[in-house]
Design brief:
This protein is α/β, with parallel strands linked by helices and 301 residues long. It is built from eleven helices and ten strands. The strands form two sheets. It has a five-stranded mixed beta sheet. It has a five-stranded mixed beta sheet with strand order 4-5-6-8-7, with no helix packed on it.
């Protein structure tokens, strides 16, 4: 049996279409889309419709990611979210996506997604979740401690754990258990701009094939402006586009920096952040000086 596990499409229809074309060559028996199909990008409705189409051709399971849940909570004005976020311009990109999917009538599709999926194989039990099975924002990555893995394996017994969320592919052994991360289709954070996903071959000898598929990244970035996502999404949409361009995580680092200094998240603090951390932009002072002056991708193309 061959499993294709892909995640973190993040509304990047160009990357997703490239993966779908590659799937036709790989011929998996089952596809698991491991969460975060929406947000961080402009083509949210198109991605969901394409997933529905894919389900006609393959045995396809779709799981809930933290961004999928965030969009549902935003649309519901959930009390689980800090209420000040709803008036903060930094969150306009989230509001834009929630409105897009609400108008397309696709929010219920996201609300119905399960958190985990498991199956039995002759290699043992396989447990798949966007983050870990105990929380969708607890990603399998280099920084996840052995203590945390021990707690997860005790709470949710399995032999092979497959997650996503960190946007970086990974293979790690923990005792007799195998921990895998699929990497990201839409916005990888490992400096490789290609759309990345995992083929797991459950033959007698288990094989992991971390796939990386080239696609038209410039067209994907162009959609940020063509769709008005960039213009209406404010600073957060700009940062998401920059992450796509540079294939590395920036939003999380900016968030932590502003929290530590108790700063608002706006264009002024963004420019200060860029000046303090030019290494994010390949140690280019020119790039660091340019970023943050105006919400236009003319600055980074």
């Amino acid at each position: 049996m061959r499993l294709a596990i892909l995640a973190d499409i993040h509304a990047n229809i160009y990357a997703f279409e490239a993966v779908i074309a590659d799937l036709a060559k790989q011929k998996p028996d089952q596809i698991i889309i491991n969460g975060d199909v929406v947000n961080r990008g402009p083509d949210n409705a198109k991605v969901i419709e394409r997933i529905k189409d894919l389900s006609h051709d393959y045995d396809c399971k779709v799981l809930l990611g933290n961004h999928d849940d965030l969009i549902c909570m935003w649309a519901d004005q959930s009390l689980k979210l800090p209420q000040e976020w709803f008036a903060d311009p930094f969150w306009q990109s989230t509001a834009w996506v929630a409105n897009q999917l609400s108008q397309a009538g696709q929010l219920d599709y996201l609300r119905d997604l399960p958190m985990t999926y498991q199956l039995e194989s002759h290699h043992g039990r396989i447990l798949i979740s966007h983050g870990s099975p105990r929380h969708y924002r607890e990603g399998y990555g280099k920084l996840l401690s052995d203590e945390s893995l021990a707690e997860i394996s005790e709470m949710h017994p399995a032999d092979i754990y497959i997650g996503s969320h960190t946007h970086q592919p990974m293979k790690r052994h923990f005792g007799h258990k195998l921990i895998l991360n699929t990497g990201a289709v839409g916005t990888p954070f490992n400096r490789d701009p290609r759309a990345q996903y995992l083929i797991l071959d459950l033959a007698e000898e288990l094989r992991c094939d971390f796939r990386a598929v080239a696609y038209d990244q410039e067209a994907a970035i162009g959609c940020f402006e063509a769709s008005e996502y960039l213009a209406k999404g404010d600073l957060s949409a700009f940062i998401f586009g920059l992450e796509l361009k540079l294939s590395r995580g920036i939003y999380g680092r900016f968030w932590i920096w502003t929290e530590q200094l108790d700063y608002p998240r706006n264009w002024q603090t963004w420019q200060e952040f860029c000046q303090n951390y030019p290494e994010i932009f390949n140690e280019s002072p020119t790039m660091a000086d340019m970023i943050g002056k105006a919400p236009s991708f003319d600055l980074i193309l």
